[in-house]
Design goal:
The protein is α+β, with helices and mostly antiparallel strands. The protein has a single domain, classed as Roll (Pnp Oxidase, Chain A), CATH 2.30.110.10.
């Protein structure tokens, strides 16, 4: 029985992989950028620390979506960590409601730190980054960003996404 289960898990089936990744809990964050007067933001869970010297983080973005090209062209991004109270904001930025970018940003209060990327004023933490490396792989590009500035907000319960639904931690 154990061999059968292991064999099933080793299959490189896209649906099986997505179902397995749905069980992976991730902190919900908004990655944002700006280029000229154009802003873009996307809800993500694929982000993490790379190093603390120098402070560096990574975010994975789907490069098959041409609208994400602005991230790669601008050379900057802010990673805004969300609290449980930000669930409606996350939903707005998920793309499921087909809101314009202007309507998405209207759901939050924004300013900028050092780079000019939109920073959520009441985020749990905001990492304002300059992109130091882009690594394309399969459908996504890994953006590695050196933290130019950061802001800590309230220590509220984190918004987490797991099993295709929101949770708090």
């Amino acid at each position: 029985m154990l061999k059968r289960n292991l064999a099933e898990l080793s299959v490189a089936d896209g649906k099986l992989y997505r179902d397995a990744m749905a069980r992976y809990a991730g902190h919900v964050q908004l990655v944002t950028t700006a280029l000229g007067d154009t802003r873009r933001g996307v809800a993500v869970t694929a982000a993490c620390s790379v190093s603390d010297n120098p402070p560096t983080i990574l975010v994975c973005l789907n490069h098959n979506n041409e609208k994400n090209d602005i991230f790669f062209e601008s050379g900057i991004f802010a990673l805004n960590s969300l609290a449980a109270r930000h669930q409606p904001l996350s939903h707005a930025f998920s793309g499921l409601e087909k809101l314009t970018m202007e309507a998405r940003f209207a759901h939050g209060n924004w300013d900028t730190l050092v780079t000019g990327a939109p920073a959520l004023v009441d985020a749990v933490a905001t990492y304002d980054c300059r992109i130091v490396k882009l690594v394309p792989h399969a459908t996504h590009t890994i953006m590695i960003g050196e933290v130019a500035a950061l802001r800590l907000g309230a220590q509220d319960p984190a918004l987490v996404y797991m099993d295709r639904s929101y949770r708090t931690l």
